[in-house]
Here is the input.
Amino acid sequence: MRLAIFLLIFCIFEYAVGVDPTNFKTCEQSSFCRRSRKLQPGNSKFALVPGSMNTYANSITADIINKETHHLFILKLEALVDNKFRLLIDEKTPLKPRYKVEHVLVGEPQTEPLVVEKEDKTEIVLSSGTNKAVIVADPFRVDFYENGALVVSANAKGLMNFEHLRNKPQTNPDGSQNEQEGGEAAVAPQTPEDSDPGAWEENFKSHHDSKPNGPEAIALDFSFPEADVLFGIPEHADSFILKSTSGSDPYRLYNLDVFEYIIDSKMALYGSVPVLYGHGSQRTAGVFWQNAAETWVDIYLTEQNVVSSIVKLVSGSRKVDPPAAHFISESGVIDAFILLGPKPMDAFKQYTSLTGVGNLPQLFSLAYHQCRWNYNDAKDVETVSTKFDEYDIPMDIMWLDIEYTDGKKYFTWDQFKFPDPLSMIKNLTDVGRHLVVIIDPHIKRDNGYFFHNDCTEKGYYTKHKDGKDYEGWCWPGSASYPDFFRQDVRDYYADQYLLSNFKTVTSDVMIWNDMNEPSVFNGPEVTMPKDLIHHGGWEHRDVHNLYGHMHIMGTYEGLLRRDPNQRPFILTRAHFAGSQRYAAIWTGDNMADWGHLQHSIKMCLSEAVAGISFCGADVGGFFGNPDAELFERWYQTGAFLPFFRSHAHIDTKRREPWLFPEKTRLIIREAIRKRYSYLPLWYTMFYEHEVDGSPVIRPLLAHYPKDKDGFAIDNEFLLQDRLLVRPVMQHGVSKVDVYFPALDEKKTVGDVWYDADSYQKYERVGKETIAVDEYKIPVFQRGGSIVPKKERIRRSSPLMKNDPYTLIVCLDRNGKAEGTLYLDDEKSFDYRQGKFVYINYKFDGSKLTNNFVKPPNYDSKSWIERVVIAGLDRQPKSATITINGVTEQLEVVAHEKAYVIRKPGVAIHKDFEIKLNY
Here is the structure.
């Protein structure tokens, strides 16, 4: 027992003092990565078998042979709607089935006709509409064309690898090999994996991986001939644009609990989304590598062979090899979706058409969240909530970390610290606030804990190979981990959220799923051993990156069972492709320093283009104690990221805003109030994300794809195409450079931009130096856009529900603007039955009109309080509003560098026209 306590204390100490990179594998220490990375470009051993093609209406199949081992594989190529192809490669007759990812796609992808235009011994040419796929026979390669342009090429570098399943050779004492298990003669040609000591078992530090299936790695490279830059494959604390991995480890995708993570690093973090894009000034394309095993991704940006580069330059072809990515996974099959673009937004939407969109969240979840590990007790929660009112700072959600439970047993409460949770919850909801509580996947092994007893009795835990329950260490001490890959386990877990079971909460309490990589303090790389067994007999190595995804699937189902007509809010740390359908994410255990503040934008941009828009970072940094300036600037940055939460480690100083000097408190208050003023825009953007899959926050290249100087900019970002945000993220500065992107390659023209505070106009392309004081957040509205706001700020967002709207109209060079506003009951799923108001506003140079995208079917009590127009060349004398044929004169007054139409007073769901009078 003493040893167990010592181990737990040691693990927690290690957790608290910061990340040790040696606790995590390098590619060289991961045998499958090491083997695949040793392959040399231009030496592909795979070829198409002549005459093996079978044709179907929407796909073809053909055999591929490894020319060294003579092992056969089966290729399937499908044409999918909306400029997509799917490339699948599996063993033709494997010893046993290989894992194919489930629970990620929103459904079976919709196919479209695929026509064979040519077939001979050298190539097969296939067409689908204006798209084309050319399969080169030997060496095997597939080139994908969009409207005549080659945009993606698979295996162009010849780095494909597919280690077929085999029986383990039996070795004699003298080192010779007998027949293999199963009686097969050991006469197959030797492969690199046969001589690799890590192929059949592998050690890392004190941990042993038995590898019962032996070597089974897969790999494939993808080149992007039209691209200048590559981006995607979150989650990494690195730049938005991916860097060359020449001379370093590849980017790693393996969900891990990494605290105080290193910035500017290719290390694996909490989530893995294996989608990557190549972008150039003419085209964008992407690849979604659907594999849930440990994956490494090499990035090739320049050609190493200078002589070859010179030859290509002289011949008039591309000066260097195009950017390329080499995906290397430990197990599974090759299952790659090719996204042909051609525009950045096209590629992003093609990906979300496969993996889904984030559901429209309840409005409160887009407001400000207050958290720390941990608020001490119910009195502490009440005091903090009251203090926000005392200092007139809006706040919507209080959070409770693990200490609210009875000894880290989830679905329970500490009866001494929280003797009456329902009263505490009611005190919050009475003032329009919510509570979020944490529920992690590690289950305390305690014979007095119902959840543990049920999982033990019913066999619900993840197993060792011998069928015994796996036991690891996490916050409760000895813990086991439910096998969420089993439907009955997810059902059991979901039922715990029913109010008849979890009686000490209400349907308004939402959930935080943490530590679900899964985190195991005494496990290899702080996670589960790979040779554990999940439902269906699959090893953990096959499904590791999906574990957290399956956890939040269960949570989402639980909240729906609890209240079928209330939209769930879940925050998750671990995530995979498709996790956006269930939860928001945050960037994990960051630090209170300027570098981690800067990386919050880079990381959330990478997640957004990978389908996960609802992203934020712990404001102030989870570890450490931010000084006043860093804290102020972090709030100002967080106010313009989708998920806006302050959070801190248990050992940090308390950091509620009023504990800082008055100046800091007022700056933070102003940043939070600014967030609340833009809630109508946030809500509209998330609705439109659900409708069409477009990211909510976007890199500059999303809308300015021709401006090469903007490709790598990741210290500013767009909210849709309406706002450009460039937070102040440096210490002690009185000015920052803001880059205003160009619409053309020659950088001769860009959009007009207006300072969101002063309406100062900026028309020049390129960098502008903007003066900033302590309160200033450089935010600019694009000319040609209309942004809805609410400027009556209350203690929480539900109390603003019926408040009036302000429309901010910023004109383009032609004096025009357009924008949308969406509203509904902010809580239920009734909007999916059409109960909403969705409006498109247009200003044509002299009048503002509204057009309902669908007839309004929600009775809102809100109205339009004012209209602000920036960019007019002179002040109107007045304005005339017409409603149902009735006209009324409105006052127009100057405000900053704009003009305000006062008190239109028109109900939000009524048709109107406002005409300017000169």
